Every structure is written in structure tokens, then in C-alpha cells.
Please model this.
Amino acid sequence: MYELVQVSDRCYYINCPAKIGVYFARENGVYLIDSGNDKDAGRKVRQILERNGWRLLGILNTHSNADHIGGNHYLQGQTGCKIYAGGIEAAFTQYPLLEPSFLYGGYPCKDLRHKFLLAQESRVCGFAEDGFPEEIEVLPLPGHFFDMVGFRTPDDVVFLADCISSIETLEKYAISFIYDVGAYLETLDQVEAMEAAFFVPAHAEASSNVRALVQYNRRKVYEVAEHIQTICREPMISERILQRIFQEYGLTMNFEQYVLVGSTVRSYLSWLKDQGKVNARFEENLLLWETT
Model:
């Protein structure tokens, strides 16, 4: 864990739970792509940089989930580096209480205010501001989260963030977190058609070809959608739908899984409703979902 792996002349990744990219920009200066899940991750990254004689020029955040920005605060405090993020992700990175609040749908209790869902705050710059490496292409990859992006380096390495998960992860957890199902499917189409010398997903093996994995992720989305439609053949409230999902996929309910899977199931319901595949109605002050 935290092994430095070289994938091109100028690009590396640090092998950890959410892969951290390293782009060698000039002389001894490097940019990180994401920063790991907490202060300890940031410390390990700093040690790797010091062993190689590299100076941290900045951190490019793909999105604002805590496991991708958790090292920001420590590394910025240690080096004074700039942190770059875009759109809604910039707001969540600067005000990280937004993540557990959004997932829960209200003020999060202490069980949700921990490093897995709540990073420390960091000062943020936009991608168009001074210091951002202009030679790096920002690739919009929405769906998993609001304004998630990937990055393409000059030597044609693409860092894909969380837009695809490994087969092992999907088999274990059954449902990957998705904020916008329609946008996520469009992103999968985009990535499937993408050409690059090498791809580095955050939660899957780095590879020169990710098409088969993209196709597997797409099949899982439609599988989950069809499963929700089957559950909703009888009118059901979202809490009961969530209970059935946990029971039938063999998942274990806790606060983290409740908000992550619950938010995703509600996103599926919204997408299915907009597609005309489920209806929603209010009855006896309950919101009921039913397959059309």
C-alpha cells in the first residue's frame, strides 16, 4: 500500500484505496491528482515526495468525496500548495460539511461526521486560475458526483476518478454510489469511446484499455434499475425499497451505508421517474413509488 507506480515518462500513481496521481511538471515540481482519505494519507504522500526530491506545486481534485480530498488540509498546511477544484466540487471541498449533510438530507449526526464522509476544509482555486498546469486537459465526468472531472496529461495518461469501479468492488457492494444516473451513463459512453495511452481509475486497476470494465459498470447500473422496478411492482415507500435492496443484495445496514446506498436508490428513483418507468404519488401522507 502507498507504493509509487510509474505509468509514463511523467506520470505515476500512488497505489492506495483511492489512487493518487502524480504528474511531473518541471524540474523537481509535481502536481498531485487527489490527496487520499485523511491526514495520515497526506503524511505518507509527503514522505514519498521527499524521498524522490519532489516539490509539491499543487493538488488537482477530481471531486470532493472525502476519500479524494482528505489529505488536502495537511498537505496545504505543510507546503502552502494551491488546491484546484471546479464547480460544485469546489464548494464541497472548501465547506466539507456539505457532503454528509447532502447525503443525509439534513444536519448529520456524529455517526456521519467522521473522516470517511467529512474531510477537513481546504482553500480552493478554480481550474482557470494562475498556477494550474495549462498543459493538462480537464475532462468533465459527471454522474458519480456533481461536477466530477478527470485529467489528461501531455503524455496521454487519463486519470478517471470514480467513473468506473472494479468488478471485485461491484460484486462486494452490489451498488456503487451514483448522484445522477443519466449523467453517469453518458459519462460511461464517453469513457468507452475514449482513446489514451493509459487509464488510471481511482478504484480499479490501471490499464491501457478499460472498455470491458466500462461495459460491466453499465450492465450493473441497468441491473440495479431493473431490480428497483421489480421491487416497485407494488406501491412502496423509499425506506421499504431500501430495506429490500439491502436484504436481497446481502448488504449490512449502518449509518454510512444507509446514506450512501439510500442516496443512490433515491437517485435511481428520480431517473426512473423522469424516464416514465415508475410513478410517484402521495397517499395518507406517504410518498409511494410504483412501476408503470
